[in-house]
Amino acid sequence: MSDREYLHLNRVKGDLIVLEGVKNAAYGEILNITLEDGKKRNGKIVAVQGDKVVAQVFQGTQGVSTNNVAVNFTGKPLEIPLSIDILGRQFNGLGQSVDGIGPIYSSKRYNVNGRPMNPVARSYPRDYLETGISAIDSLMTLIRGQKLPIFSGNGLPHNELAAQIVRQASVKGEESNFAIVFGAMGIKHDDADFFRQSFEGSGVIERVVMYVNLADDPAVERISTPRCALTAAEYLAYEEGMHVLVILTDITAYAEALRELSSAREEVPSRKGYPGYLYSDLATLYERAGMVLDKKGSVTLLPILTMPNDDITHPIPDLTGYITEGQIVLSRDLAKQNVYPPINVLPSLSRLMKDGIGDGFTREDHDEVSSQLFSSYSRVQEVRSLAQIIGEDDLSELDQKFMAFGKAFEERFLTQDQDEKRTIEETLDIAWEILSILPKEELERLSPKMIDKYYCGE
User: Fold this and answer.
1) Cα(109)–Cα(107) distance, rounded to whole angstroms?
2) For the whole model, what pTM was predicted?
C-alpha cells in the first residue's frame, strides 16, 4: 500500500475521477477509494499524463464529490487469488466470489493482465477437442490450443450453443483432466440463470469456473472479466496440468465497453467510434490461448460475438478474423428453418483442422468426407438458385438428387437436439449416409478406397 493518501479530486466525470500532482502512478494500477461515510470502492488507472491520473471507479461515482473521498494507490495491478478450488465456483468480473461459499484462499495472487507468450515457446496444436456437435467436429474441427470464434447475431441461439458445448466438450483419454472456464460479459440476469441451471442440471458444474459480468454491472468490470477468466485458465493449464476450454460471450459487449471507456477518456475514435487500439486489445485476449512446450496443459479459446446488423465486415468480427484461426458462422436463414445449431458451413472454417484429423486422430476418412461435404453443399446452393428461376420440377435428375442431399444435410446432419452428443464416428457415419444420396461419380473428393469401404448407396 502506498503511504501517500490523496484527499482531493480535481474532477469527477461519469465513472471517471481525475487527480493531479500524483507521482509514480502506473497504468492499470488499482486504487482504494474511501468515502466520507467509511464505505469503500475500488478504481483502476486508465490514463497517466505526466502527474495527472485518470481512474475509473468500478462501483460508479454516485455520491462522490471532489472533496469527500480519500484515495490510496496500491502500487499493484488487478490480481486474483487462484487454486484448484476455483473449479465449480462462480465469480464476478473482478474475480470476487458471488456464490455465497466465500473467497478463494491462496498464498499466490495472479496479475489478470497475464504475460505475453513467447512464440518460440509455443507448441503446435494437433489433438482435437470433441464438442459432440456434428457440424463443428467434422467440418471445422476444434484443435486443442486453438482460438476459434463463433460469429453470431442478436436473437440467434449462441447462448444455447455455448451451454451445449460446455456440457458436452471432452478430450479423449483426458476426461478427468479437462476443465472449462466460462466468461460472460454484459449478459442479462435471465441468461446468467440459464447458464448456471444448465451446468448444474447436467452435472458438469464441478469442472466449470464461471466469471460473470451482468448487463447492469460497471463497464470497467466488463474489461477485466475476460482477463480474469483467461488468468484462471492459464493457472489450471500450466500449473495444474489440465486441458482448459475457455468460452467468452459476448466479445461485442466487451468491445462496446472499451468504446465507452475510450470516449470517456476523450480519445480520438477510429472505425465506427471504436478506439484505434481495438485490434491490439483483442489480440491481448486471443493470443493467450495455446500450448506451451514442456507443459502438459493447454488453453483452447472459443470466443462468441454477436455481429451488429449481422455485418461480418463490422470492426469486431473483422479484426477477430485476422487474429484467430478460423470462425464458426451462425445463419439467420437456417435458424428460421428451425435448424439447430444453425451453422452456416460454407463461410466457416478451422485453419488448424488439417493437422488434427485423420488416421490416429479422428478417423481415416475424415479429411476426404469433410472436403466432399463442403463441395457438395456448395453445389446445392447453385442448384437452389437455379430452382428459383426454372422451378424445382424442371431440374435434371442429378440436380434433384443434389436438392435431396441439401435437405438431408440440413435436417439430419446439421440438426441435432440440444442434449444430443454425437461421437466423431457417429457424425462421419451420418455424413456417409447423406453422401450416398449422390451417385458415386459425383463424389470426386473421395478416393475409390474410401468409397468402397463406406459408401452405402446403390
Assistant:
1) 7
2) 0.91
